[in-house]
Amino acid sequence: MNDPSPARAHAGPQGLPTYLVLDVSKSMKPHESLLNRTLEDIVNTLYSSPRVSEFVHLSILTFSTRPHVVLAMTEISGLTGLPVVECRGSTYFGPLFETLRDRIELDLSGLTTRGVRPLRPVVFLLTDGAPADNPAQRWVDAFESLTDPRWRPHPHVITYGFGEAVEAVLRRMATVAAFIAEPGAATDTEAITSALNTMLNSLVATAAGDALQIPERVAGFREVPLDHVEF
Fold first, then answer.
1. What whole-number distance in Å separates Cα of residue 220 and Cα of residue 194?
2. How does pLDDT run across 167-181, given as a tens digit for each residue?
3. Model pTM?
């Protein structure tokens, strides 16, 4: 899945535009401290590996009633700290997907200007709820626009769900892989930790192999078949 850059080819280092997207609706409030602590651990781990910190260009977005860019795209090596994530509001996906499309346009332009050859962006999305969008078609339309193959930078999307997340929604929002927590296999805390650690491991493995690496298994989760995707 090592796609060529959707931008104009030129000499320069390859880079992976990576979007870590977290549901911070009010149902996530009990896990607010865990999210902040785990995000810091992820960034510290990526920073400790020169190969990864040069390859991964990370942006962190949260979403509830509205999306918020917690961390604009940057090289890991340039980070000095992370803003604090707060949980409130409801789970709206439509505005998130619209914002992601705008950010990808902006970020890829910025990367190419800096001499980076961006690979196809990758989105890791973690949610514990069902869409609150009304009408529901809004998030479907926004997602189809984000992942439309006719739009050259369309990203890979990997979804992780637990709690009240809906399997059919996770499947519909994924292009590469979807995982849902097995009932009784893990607590919500364990599910969050497992999902975020898996995202971290994917980035480390991708940096080592110059190709997107997705795990076959995630502790406490089962993979959701993506039978609607045509390869």
1. 7
2. 999 999 999 999 999
3. 0.90
